[in-house]
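Reminder to self: C-alpha cells first, then the designed residues, so the page reads top to bottom the way the pipeline ran.
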C-alpha cells in the first residue's frame, strides 16, 4: 500500500513538472514521508531526469547555451557542497531544515506572490542555493526560478534551458549515488516501476496543460506543500 501511494506521488509530481513547470519540491517531502530518504532521493532524481529529457527532445532548439553554462557551473558546485554536507550532518537535522524551507516556499507562493524582478545579488544567491537544495533534496527548482525567470522571460527558452540543466545535474547526481553505494536492489526495482506513473504523468500534464485553471490549481498545490512540510518538520524534531 505504501509503495502504491509512493507511485501516486511520483505520478502527481511528474504531472506538475509537465504542466506547470515544477514537481520535485512536492514529490520529495511526500516521498520521504512514505519511503524515506534512501529510496526517494535516487528514484525521484532518476524520474526527474527522464521527465526533463522528454521535454528537452521537443524544445532543445530553444536552449540559451550561455545561461545554461552559467547555471550548470554554479549549481554543480552547489551539488558538490551538498554532497559534502550530507556526509557530515545527521539526516534528521537536514530534514528539519528541508521541512522549514518547504513550508516557507509554500507560504510565500500562496500568500505573497510577486512579479517584481529580483536584484542581481539576490538572483545569484538564489542560483547558488538552488544547487545546494538540488544536491540535498532534488528540490532546487523554486530557487532556480528566482534567477531563471528574470534572465529568460521567453517561455520556450526558459523551459528548454531549465530542462537541459536538470538533465546535466541529475546525471551528475545519479553518478554520485551509484559511486557512493546509494543505489541498491530496492532502489533499482522502485525506479524501474516508477517509469510507468512517470509516462502517465507526462501524458496527463500535456493533456491538461491548456485546460486547467492554473491559479486555482496552484493554490491547492501550495497548500499540499505547506502540509507536507509541516509533517516532515514535526516528524523529525
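Designed residues (237 positions):
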Amino acid at each position: 500500500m505504501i509503495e502504491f501511494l509512493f507511485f501516486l506521488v511520483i505520478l502527481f509530481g511528474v504531472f506538475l513538472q509537465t504542466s506547470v513547470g515544477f514537481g520535485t519540491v512536492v514529490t520529495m517531502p511526500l516521498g520521504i514521508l512514505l519511503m524515506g530518504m534512501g529510496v526517494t532521493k535516487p528514484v525521484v532524481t532518476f524520474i526527474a531526469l527522464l521527465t526533463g529529457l522528454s521535454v528537452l527532445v521537443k524544445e532543445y532548439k530553444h536552449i540559451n547555451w550561455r545561461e545554461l553554462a552559467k547555471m550548470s557551473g554554479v549549481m554543480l558546485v552547489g551539488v558538490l557542497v551538498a554532497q559534502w554536507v550530507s556526509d557530515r550532518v545527521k539526516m534528521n537535522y537536514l530534514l528539519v531544515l528541508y521541512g522549514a524551507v518547504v513550508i516557507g516556499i509554500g507560504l510565500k507562493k500562496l500568500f505573497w506572490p510577486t512579479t517584481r524582478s529580483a536584484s542581481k545579488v539576490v538572483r545569484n544567491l538564489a542560483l547558488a542555493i538552488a544547487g545546494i537544495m538540488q544536491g540535498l533534496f532534488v528540490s532546487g527548482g523554486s530557487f532556480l526560478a528566482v534567477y531563471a525567470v528574470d534572465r529568460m522571460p521567453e517561455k520556450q527558452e526558459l523551459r528548454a534551458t531549465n530542462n537541459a540543466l536538470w538533465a546535466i545535474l541529475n546525471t551528475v547526481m545519479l553518478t554520485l549515488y551509484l559511486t557512493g553505494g546509494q543505489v541498491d536492489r530496492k532502489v533499482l526495482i522502485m525506479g524501474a516501476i516508477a517509469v510507468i506513473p512517470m509516462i502517465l504523468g507526462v501524458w496527463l500534464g500535456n493533456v491538461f496543460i491548456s485546460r486547467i485553471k492554473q491559479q486555482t490549481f496552484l493554490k491547492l498545490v501550495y497548500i499540499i506543500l505547506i502540509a507536507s512540510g509541516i509533517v516532515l518538520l514535526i516528524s523529525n524534531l
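Residues 2-236 form one domain.
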